[in-house]
Amino acid sequence: PFDRFAKETLRAPGYVRYMDDFGLWFATREDARASREPLERFLREALHLELHAPLRIQRAERGITFVGFRVRPQVLSLSTRRKRRYRRARRRWEEAY
Description:
- It is a single chain.
- With 97 residues, this protein is α+β, with helices and mostly antiparallel strands.
- It starts with a helix and ends with a helix.
- The strands form two sheets. Strands 3-4-5 form a three-stranded antiparallel beta sheet.
- The chain has helices spanning 2-9, 29-46, 80-96, and strands at residues 14-18, 21-25, 64-66, 69-72, 75-78.
- It is built from three helices and five strands, in the order αββαβββα.
């Protein structure tokens, strides 16, 4: 139900969700701010859920870290933290080999 609410009721032009994490993109900051109250009300009343992380409203060009990836308009890359963890693991694998 949340997927349909985000796309049909909030009319978010961009929406991504993985399990209990989600991100919404809007054309203007005002649209994003206006969607906050209906979003929280829907989660509370329909799904009996509350937002735990602070809601951040920022420009899309800055991107967001989402499920270990850095998401920007038309760009998807590994997050800095994930890159660092991979490098450390790879060094251990090579030493073990």
